[in-house]
Amino acid sequence: MAAYYVKACRLTVILYVYVTAVAVSGRLLPLQPYLNVQEKPIAKIYDTSKYGILQLGNGLATTPQMGWNSWNFFKCDIHEDVIKETADALITTGLAKLGYNYVNIDDCWSEPTRNSEGKMVPDSKAFPSGIKALADYVHSKGLKLGIYSDAGLFTCQVRPGSLKHEYDDATLFASWGIDYLKYDNCFNLGIEPEERYPPMRDALNATGRTIFYSLCEWGVNDPALWAGRIGNSWRTTDDIEDTWESMTAIADINDKWAAYAGPGGWNDPDMLEVGNGGMTYQEYRAHFSIWALMKAPLLIGCDVRNMTPETYEILTNEEVIGVDQDPLGVQGRKVHTYGPDGCYQVWAGPLTGQRYVVALWNRCSKPATITAEWAAIGLESSASYSVRDLWKHEYASLNSRTSFSAQIDAHACEMYILAPVASVRAAA
């Protein structure tokens, strides 16, 4: 009963904070609250008042991380040739030039047990040359190498975890030239994550090597509330699956923590499934669009050595990537829903240069016209904005006022940037 009471109190506090959000951070322009829309939002549309308290401050993650991770496609079927060939493919496809610079090895890279000295050992069959040699190869391409461990006795695939071995393992990773650590949550002995994750932060910092610290706590203890002082990103959800249902549910969960993200620390709704075959082209495009709008990490989860033209088109859209990497660093969010079961959705967020990104997302099973009202986005109704379509790479309108509408296919998401008309004319 005591545990239930504590949990209830925690949820009450979270709800109170969320509903009564205080003033928007000074980084943002003054924004208008919702006017005449169906659902009432928190006090400020793009609230960032929870961000910035005791951030990790290791100089990384000024924008969300970009790269590739082995798990979604390869699972445990990994070896050093796959990692090398992936690094090569990131270069030859041009993905690396677009910012995809982390090559991250997930679970199953190590032997099942530590050696006689208590150290982790790379799987001798999968990584016969060792991880340092692999890091040297990846670095020679101008890329960075990431690795995986767990804040428990074992990893999720029952390899050695780093609980109670944080300093030894961090020192080993640094000696190999590791640039990124994904730190999972399996076999955790029931110890609270707020206790298990800081020791690895301290251990990584003690190595003297700058290593990106990605917490994979699955959102169990609402890491957005506490992980900003510990890591550079934190998983807000359970593992993504390559389905429409999983992707949309995860987007909704991640959305509620938008006020806590910003430069230095990001909400992580898990890796991209684009190109893995479980969703349609339109659904994958929506997946990529919403992840970029939410300032999520863009970690490719498919086999980049064998991409279809459609997958390549999605992953290389520079205008959408630019939204994710916009230096203002404010997570966009769901600002208005209507229609059957709220499946006509408007997501939006502020960008640098007094611009706004707007996504019209049709989560219904039939095409529909979706309208973004200026008031819902936080704009004065009399203001004039150009509307640039980020998937068609053309202007849908050079002078729109009050609202903007578009026909959206079923399960599709169209993405736009709104810019003050005066700034567009000046650029021309």
Gist?
By secondary structure, the protein is of the alpha/beta class.
The outline comes out as globular
Name the helix and strand elements from N-terminus to C-terminus, one letter apiece: HEHHEHEHEHHEEHEHEHHEEEEHEEEEH
User: Whole-number average pLDDT?
Assistant: 90
Count of domains:
2
Quickly give the CATH architecture of the largest domain: Alpha-Beta Barrel
Counted beta strands: 16
- Total helices: the number is 13
Q: What profile does the largest beta sheet have?
A: 8 strands, parallel
- The largest beta-sheet arranges its strands as 7-6-5-4-3-2-1-8
Low-pLDDT stretches: 1-43
User: Would you tell me which CATH topology of the largest domain applies?
Assistant: TIM Barrel
What report would you give on this structure?
With 428 residues, this protein is α/β, with parallel strands linked by helices. It has 2 domains: 66-325, TIM Barrel; 333-420, Golgi alpha-mannosidase II (Immunoglobulin-like, Sandwich). Helices cover 28% and strands 21% of the residues. The chain is built from 13 helices and 16 strands. It has helices at 2-19, 71-74, 80-92, 131-140, 166-176, 193-196, 198-206, 244-255, 281-293, 309-315, 318-324, 374-377, 421-427; strands at 66-69, 102-104, 144-150, 180-184, 212-215, 233-235, 266-268, 298-300, 333-338, 344-351, 355-362, 368-373, 384-389, 394-401, 403-408, 413-420. The strands form 3 sheets. The protein has an 8-stranded parallel sheet. A 6-stranded antiparallel sheet has the order 9-10-11-16-13-14. It has a two-stranded antiparallel sheet with strand order 12-15. Helix 8 (244-255) links the parallel strand 6 (233-235) and strand 7. Helix 3 packs parallel to helix 4 (131-140) and helix 5 (166-176) packs across helix 7. The longest helix is centred in the N-terminal third of the chain and has 18 residues, at 2-19. The chain starts with a helix and ends with a helix. Residues 341-418 form the Alpha galactosidase C-terminal domain. It catalyses: Hydrolysis of terminal, non-reducing alpha-D-galactose residues in alpha-D-galactosides, including galactose oligosaccharides, galactomannans and galactolipids.
